[in-house]
Amino acid sequence: MSETTSSQTIWLTQDAYDKLQQELEYLTGPGRAEVSARIAAAREEGDLRENGGYHAAREEQGQQEARIRQLTDMLRRAEVGEAPDNPDEVVPGTKVTIAFGGDEDDTDTFLLGSRELLGVDDSVDLNVYSPQSPLGSAILGKHKGDAVSYQAPNGKDIAVTIVAVEPYQG
Fold this sequence. Notes:
Blueprint: E1 10-12, H1 14-43, H2 52-76, E2 78-80, E3 94-100, E4 107-112, E5 127-129, H3 134-139, E6 147-151, E7 157-167
Parallel strand pairs: 1-2, 4-5
Antiparallel strand pairs: 3-4, 3-7, 6-7
Helix pairs in contact: 1-2
């Protein structure tokens, strides 16, 4: 990532941006109308204190509004682009292989980014690390062969060497 891109920027492919935009449009339009209709129908059933349908619809409404706020924020901070064709540095949207402690037999391969934001569905069997995670921030901007260390959530320092960097072909 360039120096001008802040850690608050969210990297998105155009496809992921479009999917999130469609979800937001649905939630703020038909989605809100559907939940409001369920609340109104449940309210007509009478006593709201013991009305499970009413409380479930209100809970769904709260979750939906939280998702709308989350999507609005993500799209506001989004930087749309495609994964680089021939990356030589670790950036969001790249598939990275690291070796722990320089041991080529102890490796992990993962996608740097966000499963949701990169448009990766759950059928893809690949770990995903955020660029803001301890590991992600340690390797961001580094190149194949670079050795770095980061502090794990348990407080331990972990040394890794970047073995491979390639564009993610989703």
